[in-house]
Amino acid sequence: MATQHPFDLLDVERELNAEQKAIQAVTRQYVNDRIKPNIAHWYETTEIPVRELARELGEIGLLGMHLDGYGCAGTDATSYGLACMELEAGDSGLRSLVSVQGSLAMFAIHAYGSEETKSEWLPKMATGEAIGCFGLTEADHGSNPAGMITTAKKVGGDWIINGSKMWITNGNVADVAIVWARTDEGVRGFCVPTSTPGFSANLIKHKLSLRASMTAELVFENMRVPDSSRLPGATSLRAPLTCLAEARFGIIFGAVGAARDCLESSLAYASTREQFEGPISRHQITQEKFAKMATRLNTAALLALHLGKIKDEHKITPQQISMGKFNNVQGAIEIAREARSILGAAGITTEYPIFRHMTNLESVLTYEGTHEIHALVIGEALTGIAAFR
Ligand SMILES: Cc1cc2nc3c(=O)[nH]c(=O)nc-3n(C[C@H](O)[C@H](O)[C@H](O)COP(=O)(O)OP(=O)(O)OC[C@H]3O[C@@H](n4cnc5c(N)ncnc54)[C@H](O)[C@@H]3O)c2cc1C
Protein backbone atom coordinates (compact mmCIF):
# COMPACT_ATOMS: atom_id res chain seq x y z
CA MET A 1 0.00 0.00 0.00
CA ALA A 2 1.23 3.54 -0.79
CA THR A 3 2.53 5.49 2.21
CA GLN A 4 1.68 9.05 3.16
CA HIS A 5 4.03 11.73 4.43
CA PRO A 6 3.20 12.47 8.09
CA PHE A 7 2.15 16.03 7.22
CA ASP A 8 -0.27 14.77 4.57
CA LEU A 9 -2.36 13.05 7.23
CA LEU A 10 -3.82 16.36 8.42
CA ASP A 11 -3.00 18.29 5.24
CA VAL A 12 -0.88 20.62 7.38
CA GLU A 13 0.36 22.73 4.51
CA ARG A 14 -3.04 23.47 2.95
CA GLU A 15 -3.12 27.09 4.08
CA LEU A 16 0.35 28.08 2.93
CA ASN A 17 0.49 30.54 0.04
CA ALA A 18 2.75 30.20 -2.98
CA GLU A 19 5.44 32.51 -1.60
CA GLN A 20 5.57 30.69 1.73
CA LYS A 21 5.85 27.34 -0.07
CA ALA A 22 8.61 28.68 -2.30
CA ILE A 23 10.66 29.98 0.65
CA GLN A 24 10.22 26.66 2.42
CA ALA A 25 11.27 24.72 -0.69
CA VAL A 26 14.40 26.81 -1.31
CA THR A 27 15.47 26.44 2.32
CA ARG A 28 14.82 22.70 2.29
CA GLN A 29 16.88 22.31 -0.88
CA TYR A 30 19.79 24.22 0.69
CA VAL A 31 19.62 22.06 3.82
CA ASN A 32 19.48 18.85 1.80
CA ASP A 33 22.38 19.83 -0.49
CA ARG A 34 24.69 21.69 1.86
CA ILE A 35 23.92 20.81 5.47
CA LYS A 36 22.79 17.19 5.62
CA PRO A 37 25.87 15.77 3.86
CA ASN A 38 28.22 17.62 6.26
CA ILE A 39 26.45 18.07 9.55
CA ALA A 40 27.53 14.85 11.26
CA HIS A 41 31.18 15.75 10.66
CA TRP A 42 30.72 19.32 11.88
CA TYR A 43 28.88 18.06 14.92
CA GLU A 44 31.55 15.53 15.83
CA THR A 45 34.50 17.87 15.24
CA THR A 46 32.65 21.03 16.38
CA GLU A 47 34.35 22.70 13.42
CA ILE A 48 31.48 24.42 11.72
CA PRO A 49 32.30 26.93 8.95
CA VAL A 50 30.12 29.66 10.44
CA ARG A 51 31.40 32.45 8.18
CA GLU A 52 30.92 30.46 5.00
CA LEU A 53 27.45 29.37 6.07
CA ALA A 54 26.47 32.91 7.06
CA ARG A 55 27.39 34.13 3.56
CA GLU A 56 25.38 31.33 1.96
CA LEU A 57 22.37 31.94 4.20
CA GLY A 58 22.65 35.65 3.38
CA GLU A 59 22.72 34.89 -0.32
CA ILE A 60 19.48 32.90 -0.06
CA GLY A 61 18.00 35.84 1.85
CA LEU A 62 17.40 34.11 5.19
CA LEU A 63 19.22 36.53 7.52
CA GLY A 64 16.87 39.07 9.04
CA MET A 65 14.38 37.92 6.41
CA HIS A 66 11.31 39.13 8.33
CA LEU A 67 12.70 42.65 8.77
CA ASP A 68 11.97 45.52 6.37
CA GLY A 69 14.53 47.64 4.53
CA TYR A 70 18.33 47.77 4.92
CA GLY A 71 18.79 44.84 2.53
CA CYS A 72 16.42 42.55 4.46
CA ALA A 73 13.87 40.46 2.56
CA GLY A 74 10.77 41.71 4.43
CA THR A 75 8.86 38.42 4.37
CA ASP A 76 5.93 37.60 6.59
CA ALA A 77 6.43 35.89 9.95
CA THR A 78 5.08 32.54 8.76
CA SER A 79 7.69 32.39 5.99
CA TYR A 80 10.39 33.06 8.54
CA GLY A 81 8.97 30.28 10.70
CA LEU A 82 8.91 27.86 7.78
CA ALA A 83 12.55 28.66 7.00
CA CYS A 84 13.37 27.93 10.66
CA MET A 85 11.53 24.61 10.35
CA GLU A 86 13.66 23.57 7.38
CA LEU A 87 16.91 24.82 8.91
CA GLU A 88 16.30 22.93 12.13
CA ALA A 89 15.49 19.78 10.14
CA GLY A 90 19.18 20.13 9.25
CA ASP A 91 20.41 20.99 12.73
CA SER A 92 19.31 23.20 15.63
CA GLY A 93 22.74 24.85 15.44
CA LEU A 94 22.01 26.12 11.94
CA ARG A 95 18.65 27.49 13.02
CA SER A 96 20.36 29.07 16.04
CA LEU A 97 22.76 30.87 13.72
CA VAL A 98 19.86 32.34 11.75
CA SER A 99 17.78 33.08 14.89
CA VAL A 100 20.57 34.87 16.71
CA GLN A 101 21.57 36.83 13.63
CA GLY A 102 18.07 37.82 12.49
CA SER A 103 15.79 37.74 15.50
CA LEU A 104 18.19 38.77 18.24
CA ALA A 105 21.07 40.88 16.91
CA MET A 106 19.49 42.35 13.75
CA PHE A 107 16.06 42.73 15.34
CA ALA A 108 17.59 44.62 18.30
CA ILE A 109 19.33 47.04 15.93
CA HIS A 110 16.27 47.33 13.67
CA ALA A 111 13.84 47.96 16.53
CA TYR A 112 15.98 50.06 18.87
CA GLY A 113 19.05 51.32 17.00
CA SER A 114 19.75 54.80 15.63
CA GLU A 115 19.48 55.37 11.90
CA GLU A 116 23.27 55.47 11.76
CA THR A 117 23.64 52.08 13.51
CA LYS A 118 20.97 50.51 11.32
CA SER A 119 22.60 51.73 8.11
CA GLU A 120 26.03 50.68 9.26
CA TRP A 121 25.24 47.13 10.39
CA LEU A 122 22.00 45.77 8.97
CA PRO A 123 22.94 45.56 5.25
CA LYS A 124 26.13 43.62 5.94
CA MET A 125 24.42 41.41 8.50
CA ALA A 126 21.71 40.61 5.95
CA THR A 127 24.33 39.37 3.47
CA GLY A 128 26.21 37.45 6.16
CA GLU A 129 29.30 39.61 5.69
CA ALA A 130 29.00 40.58 9.35
CA ILE A 131 27.97 38.19 12.11
CA GLY A 132 26.15 39.36 15.22
CA CYS A 133 25.70 37.97 18.71
CA PHE A 134 23.37 38.89 21.58
CA GLY A 135 24.70 39.08 25.11
CA LEU A 136 22.04 39.01 27.79
CA THR A 137 22.67 35.91 29.96
CA GLU A 138 25.31 36.06 32.69
CA ALA A 139 26.88 33.17 34.57
CA ASP A 140 24.81 33.94 37.68
CA HIS A 141 21.78 35.42 35.95
CA GLY A 142 20.12 33.14 33.40
CA SER A 143 16.38 32.81 33.94
CA ASN A 144 16.39 36.10 35.80
CA PRO A 145 18.26 38.59 33.59
CA ALA A 146 16.93 41.44 35.72
CA GLY A 147 19.69 40.55 38.18
CA MET A 148 22.46 41.28 35.66
CA ILE A 149 25.62 42.80 37.09
CA THR A 150 27.35 43.96 33.89
CA THR A 151 27.46 47.73 34.17
CA ALA A 152 27.72 50.64 31.77
CA LYS A 153 28.86 53.94 33.34
CA LYS A 154 28.59 57.25 31.54
CA VAL A 155 31.95 59.05 31.35
CA GLY A 156 31.74 62.26 29.34
CA GLY A 157 30.30 61.35 25.94
CA ASP A 158 31.27 57.68 26.29
CA TRP A 159 30.24 54.62 28.24
CA ILE A 160 32.59 52.28 30.10
CA ILE A 161 31.28 48.72 30.20
CA ASN A 162 32.52 46.12 32.70
CA GLY A 163 31.26 42.59 33.26
CA SER A 164 30.74 39.36 31.37
CA LYS A 165 28.11 37.36 29.53
CA MET A 166 27.79 33.58 29.38
CA TRP A 167 26.50 31.07 26.82
CA ILE A 168 26.54 33.53 23.95
CA THR A 169 25.89 31.93 20.58
CA ASN A 170 28.54 32.96 18.01
CA GLY A 171 30.18 35.20 20.61
CA ASN A 172 33.65 34.13 19.49
CA VAL A 173 33.06 34.66 15.76
CA ALA A 174 30.87 37.74 15.86
CA ASP A 175 31.82 41.09 14.33
CA VAL A 176 29.28 42.92 16.42
CA ALA A 177 27.77 42.20 19.83
CA ILE A 178 24.53 43.49 21.27
CA VAL A 179 25.46 43.95 24.91
CA TRP A 180 22.85 44.50 27.61
CA ALA A 181 24.12 46.30 30.71
CA ARG A 182 22.87 47.97 33.86
CA THR A 183 23.16 51.78 33.93
CA ASP A 184 22.10 54.31 36.58
CA GLU A 185 18.86 54.70 34.60
CA GLY A 186 18.15 50.99 34.14
CA VAL A 187 19.03 48.33 31.55
CA ARG A 188 20.36 49.66 28.24
CA GLY A 189 21.60 47.99 25.05
CA PHE A 190 24.80 48.73 23.15
CA CYS A 191 25.85 47.75 19.65
CA VAL A 192 29.56 47.03 20.05
CA PRO A 193 32.07 46.05 17.34
CA THR A 194 33.95 43.06 18.75
CA SER A 195 37.23 44.75 17.75
CA THR A 196 36.65 47.31 20.54
CA PRO A 197 39.54 47.31 23.06
CA GLY A 198 38.42 45.62 26.29
CA PHE A 199 36.19 43.09 24.49
CA SER A 200 37.22 39.43 24.53
CA ALA A 201 35.45 36.12 23.93
CA ASN A 202 36.27 32.62 25.18
CA LEU A 203 34.85 29.62 23.37
CA ILE A 204 32.93 27.23 25.64
CA LYS A 205 34.19 23.72 25.03
CA HIS A 206 32.99 20.20 25.96
CA LYS A 207 29.36 20.78 24.99
CA LEU A 208 27.36 17.61 24.33
CA SER A 209 24.51 19.54 22.74
CA LEU A 210 24.48 22.07 19.88
CA ARG A 211 27.99 20.99 18.96
CA ALA A 212 27.55 22.45 15.49
CA SER A 213 27.12 25.90 16.98
CA MET A 214 29.71 28.10 18.67
CA THR A 215 28.95 29.26 22.20
CA ALA A 216 31.16 31.69 24.10
CA GLU A 217 31.72 33.75 27.19
CA LEU A 218 32.05 37.48 26.53
CA VAL A 219 34.25 39.57 28.82
CA PHE A 220 34.23 43.37 28.98
CA GLU A 221 37.12 45.05 30.76
CA ASN A 222 36.83 48.82 30.84
CA MET A 223 35.38 48.64 27.35
CA ARG A 224 34.84 52.24 26.21
CA VAL A 225 32.13 52.84 23.61
CA PRO A 226 30.68 56.11 22.32
CA ASP A 227 27.14 57.12 23.19
CA SER A 228 26.28 56.58 19.51
CA SER A 229 26.67 52.82 20.05
CA ARG A 230 23.76 52.83 22.52
CA LEU A 231 20.44 51.61 21.14
CA PRO A 232 18.35 54.72 21.89
CA GLY A 233 15.01 52.93 21.61
CA ALA A 234 15.95 50.36 24.27
CA THR A 235 15.01 51.90 27.59
CA SER A 236 14.42 48.91 29.86
CA LEU A 237 14.69 45.13 30.15
CA ARG A 238 11.56 44.98 28.03
CA ALA A 239 13.75 45.59 24.94
CA PRO A 240 15.86 42.39 25.14
CA LEU A 241 12.79 40.43 26.21
CA THR A 242 11.00 41.58 23.05
CA CYS A 243 13.97 40.35 20.97
CA LEU A 244 13.76 36.99 22.73
CA ALA A 245 10.07 36.70 21.86
CA GLU A 246 11.04 37.09 18.19
CA ALA A 247 13.58 34.28 18.42
CA ARG A 248 11.22 32.03 20.35
CA PHE A 249 8.70 32.35 17.56
CA GLY A 250 11.25 30.79 15.19
CA ILE A 251 11.93 28.01 17.68
CA ILE A 252 8.24 27.04 17.70
CA PHE A 253 8.61 26.16 14.00
CA GLY A 254 12.21 24.95 14.26
CA ALA A 255 11.39 22.27 16.80
CA VAL A 256 8.85 20.87 14.34
CA GLY A 257 11.60 20.59 11.72
CA ALA A 258 13.92 18.63 14.02
CA ALA A 259 11.06 16.35 15.05
CA ARG A 260 10.00 15.82 11.43
CA ASP A 261 13.52 14.77 10.51
CA CYS A 262 13.53 12.26 13.40
CA LEU A 263 10.20 10.78 12.34
CA GLU A 264 11.20 10.57 8.68
CA SER A 265 14.50 8.89 9.56
CA SER A 266 12.86 6.32 11.81
CA LEU A 267 10.16 5.56 9.21
CA ALA A 268 12.80 4.99 6.53
CA TYR A 269 14.87 2.83 8.86
CA ALA A 270 11.96 0.71 10.03
CA SER A 271 10.87 -0.06 6.47
CA THR A 272 14.23 -1.64 5.61
CA ARG A 273 15.48 -3.01 8.93
CA GLU A 274 14.43 -6.64 9.28
CA GLN A 275 14.09 -8.72 12.44
CA PHE A 276 12.20 -11.99 12.86
CA GLU A 277 12.05 -12.35 9.06
CA GLY A 278 10.37 -9.08 8.21
CA PRO A 279 10.60 -5.27 8.43
CA ILE A 280 10.29 -3.91 11.97
CA SER A 281 7.69 -1.41 10.67
CA ARG A 282 5.13 -4.25 10.64
CA HIS A 283 5.11 -4.61 14.41
CA GLN A 284 2.12 -3.13 16.21
CA ILE A 285 4.21 -1.51 18.93
CA THR A 286 6.38 0.21 16.31
CA GLN A 287 3.29 1.39 14.45
CA GLU A 288 1.82 2.78 17.64
CA LYS A 289 5.06 4.73 18.14
CA PHE A 290 4.68 6.14 14.62
CA ALA A 291 1.03 7.02 15.25
CA LYS A 292 1.93 8.90 18.43
CA MET A 293 4.88 10.67 16.82
CA ALA A 294 2.93 11.68 13.70
CA THR A 295 0.00 12.98 15.74
CA ARG A 296 2.31 14.95 18.03
CA LEU A 297 4.19 16.30 15.00
CA ASN A 298 1.07 17.36 13.12
CA THR A 299 -0.44 19.12 16.11
CA ALA A 300 2.85 20.93 16.76
CA ALA A 301 3.01 22.03 13.11
CA LEU A 302 -0.59 23.23 13.20
CA LEU A 303 0.10 25.17 16.38
CA ALA A 304 3.12 26.80 14.74
CA LEU A 305 1.12 27.79 11.66
CA HIS A 306 -1.74 29.07 13.83
CA LEU A 307 0.69 31.27 15.77
CA GLY A 308 2.27 32.35 12.47
CA LYS A 309 -1.09 33.66 11.32
CA ILE A 310 -1.61 35.57 14.56
CA LYS A 311 1.89 37.03 14.31
CA ASP A 312 1.27 38.06 10.73
CA GLU A 313 -1.74 39.99 12.02
CA HIS A 314 0.64 41.61 14.57
CA LYS A 315 -1.52 40.32 17.41
CA ILE A 316 0.67 37.67 18.99
CA THR A 317 1.15 37.80 22.77
CA PRO A 318 4.11 36.63 24.87
CA GLN A 319 1.82 34.04 26.50
CA GLN A 320 0.97 32.55 23.11
CA ILE A 321 4.65 32.35 22.21
CA SER A 322 5.39 30.70 25.55
CA MET A 323 2.69 28.10 24.93
CA GLY A 324 4.09 27.42 21.46
CA LYS A 325 7.62 26.85 22.71
CA PHE A 326 6.41 24.92 25.76
CA ASN A 327 4.42 22.49 23.62
CA ASN A 328 6.58 22.15 20.55
CA VAL A 329 10.03 21.73 22.09
CA GLN A 330 8.81 19.18 24.63
CA GLY A 331 6.93 17.40 21.84
CA ALA A 332 10.01 17.36 19.63
CA ILE A 333 12.09 15.83 22.42
CA GLU A 334 9.49 13.11 22.94
CA ILE A 335 9.43 12.39 19.21
CA ALA A 336 13.24 12.25 19.06
CA ARG A 337 13.42 9.80 21.97
CA GLU A 338 10.71 7.56 20.49
CA ALA A 339 12.34 7.67 17.04
CA ARG A 340 15.71 6.78 18.53
CA SER A 341 14.26 3.66 20.13
CA ILE A 342 13.09 2.45 16.72
CA LEU A 343 16.68 2.50 15.44
CA GLY A 344 17.93 0.39 18.31
CA ALA A 345 21.70 0.57 18.65
CA ALA A 346 22.07 2.34 15.30
CA GLY A 347 20.13 5.21 16.83
CA ILE A 348 22.96 6.28 19.11
CA THR A 349 25.45 7.15 16.35
CA THR A 350 25.84 10.23 14.16
CA GLU A 351 25.19 8.06 11.10
CA TYR A 352 21.54 8.93 11.66
CA PRO A 353 20.37 12.42 12.67
CA ILE A 354 18.10 11.45 15.55
CA PHE A 355 20.46 11.39 18.52
CA ARG A 356 22.02 14.65 17.35
CA HIS A 357 18.59 16.28 17.20
CA MET A 358 17.75 14.80 20.59
CA THR A 359 20.78 16.28 22.32
CA ASN A 360 20.34 19.61 20.50
CA LEU A 361 16.76 19.85 21.67
CA GLU A 362 17.93 19.73 25.29
CA SER A 363 19.57 23.14 24.72
CA VAL A 364 16.51 24.39 22.87
CA LEU A 365 14.41 23.41 25.91
CA THR A 366 16.66 25.63 28.05
CA TYR A 367 17.53 28.66 25.95
CA GLU A 368 15.21 31.50 24.99
CA GLY A 369 13.42 31.00 28.31
CA THR A 370 13.52 27.59 29.97
CA HIS A 371 10.63 25.16 29.73
CA GLU A 372 9.84 25.86 33.39
CA ILE A 373 9.76 29.64 32.93
CA HIS A 374 7.35 29.25 29.99
CA ALA A 375 5.17 27.02 32.18
CA LEU A 376 5.06 29.84 34.72
CA VAL A 377 4.14 32.38 32.03
CA ILE A 378 1.20 30.17 31.05
CA GLY A 379 0.38 29.56 34.72
CA GLU A 380 0.31 33.29 35.39
CA ALA A 381 -2.05 33.83 32.45
CA LEU A 382 -4.40 31.19 33.84
CA THR A 383 -4.28 32.06 37.54
CA GLY A 384 -3.30 35.71 37.63
CA ILE A 385 -0.48 34.77 40.00
CA ALA A 386 3.15 35.28 39.01
CA ALA A 387 5.03 32.35 40.55
CA PHE A 388 8.55 33.27 39.39
CA ARG A 389 9.84 34.10 42.88
C1 LIG B 1 23.65 26.42 23.62
C2 LIG B 1 23.15 27.68 24.29
C3 LIG B 1 23.17 28.88 23.59
C4 LIG B 1 22.74 30.06 24.22
N1 LIG B 1 22.81 31.25 23.55
C5 LIG B 1 22.53 32.41 24.21
C6 LIG B 1 22.73 33.68 23.57
O1 LIG B 1 23.09 33.76 22.38
N2 LIG B 1 22.52 34.82 24.29
C7 LIG B 1 22.12 34.78 25.61
O2 LIG B 1 21.97 35.85 26.20
N3 LIG B 1 21.92 33.59 26.25
C8 LIG B 1 22.13 32.41 25.58
N4 LIG B 1 21.95 31.20 26.23
C9 LIG B 1 21.60 31.19 27.64
C10 LIG B 1 20.18 30.74 27.95
O3 LIG B 1 19.27 31.71 27.58
C11 LIG B 1 20.14 30.39 29.45
O4 LIG B 1 20.86 29.18 29.60
C12 LIG B 1 18.73 30.26 30.00
O5 LIG B 1 18.13 31.52 30.10
C13 LIG B 1 18.70 29.59 31.36
O6 LIG B 1 19.61 30.16 32.24
P1 LIG B 1 20.60 29.22 33.09
O7 LIG B 1 21.23 28.26 32.14
O8 LIG B 1 21.46 30.12 33.87
O9 LIG B 1 19.67 28.35 34.01
P2 LIG B 1 19.05 28.82 35.45
O10 LIG B 1 18.36 30.13 35.29
O11 LIG B 1 20.09 28.68 36.49
O12 LIG B 1 17.95 27.69 35.63
C14 LIG B 1 18.27 26.38 36.08
C15 LIG B 1 16.96 25.62 36.28
O13 LIG B 1 16.18 26.29 37.28
C16 LIG B 1 14.91 26.56 36.74
N5 LIG B 1 14.38 27.81 37.29
C17 LIG B 1 14.99 29.01 37.38
N6 LIG B 1 14.16 29.91 37.91
C18 LIG B 1 13.00 29.26 38.14
C19 LIG B 1 11.74 29.65 38.66
N7 LIG B 1 11.47 30.91 39.05
N8 LIG B 1 10.78 28.73 38.77
C20 LIG B 1 10.98 27.45 38.35
N9 LIG B 1 12.14 27.03 37.84
C21 LIG B 1 13.13 27.93 37.74
C22 LIG B 1 15.11 26.68 35.25
O14 LIG B 1 13.91 26.52 34.53
C23 LIG B 1 16.10 25.56 35.02
O15 LIG B 1 15.44 24.34 34.96
C24 LIG B 1 22.30 30.01 25.56
C25 LIG B 1 22.24 28.77 26.24
C26 LIG B 1 22.65 27.62 25.60
C27 LIG B 1 22.58 26.31 26.35
From TrEMBL:
The residues covered by the Acyl-CoA dehydrogenase/oxidase C-terminal domain are: 240-382
Write down any Gene Ontology CC term.
mitochondrial matrix
Q: Domain named Acyl-CoA dehydrogenase/oxidase N-terminal: which ranges?
A: 18-129
Q: Does the keyword Transferase apply?
A: no
Q: Which InterPro entries match?
A: Acyl-CoA_Oxase/DH_mid-dom, Acyl-CoA_Oxase/DH_mid-dom_sf, AcylCo_DH-like_C, AcylCo_DH/oxidase_C, AcylCoA_DH/ox_N, AcylCoA_DH/ox_N_sf, AcylCoA_DH/oxidase_NM_dom_sf, Glutaryl-CoA_DH_mitochondrial
Task: Give the record's GO biological process terms.
Answer: fatty acid beta-oxidation using acyl-CoA dehydrogenase; fatty-acyl-CoA biosynthetic process
Q: Quote any Pfam family the record assigns.
A: Acyl-CoA_dh_1
Keywords on this record? FAD, Flavoprotein, Mitochondrion, Oxidoreductase, Transit peptide
Give the cofactors, semicolon-separated.
FAD
Q: Where's the Acyl-CoA oxidase/dehydrogenase middle domain?
A: 133-223
* SUPFAM superfamilies in UniProt: Acyl-CoA dehydrogenase C-terminal domain-like, Acyl-CoA dehydrogenase NM domain-like
Q: Which family does it belong to?
A: Belongs to the acyl-CoA dehydrogenase family.
Q: Which PANTHER family match?
A: GLUTARYL-COA DEHYDROGENASE, MITOCHONDRIAL
Query: Know the name of this protein?
Result: Unannotated protein
Q: Lineage from the top down?
A: unclassified sequences, metagenomes, ecological metagenomes
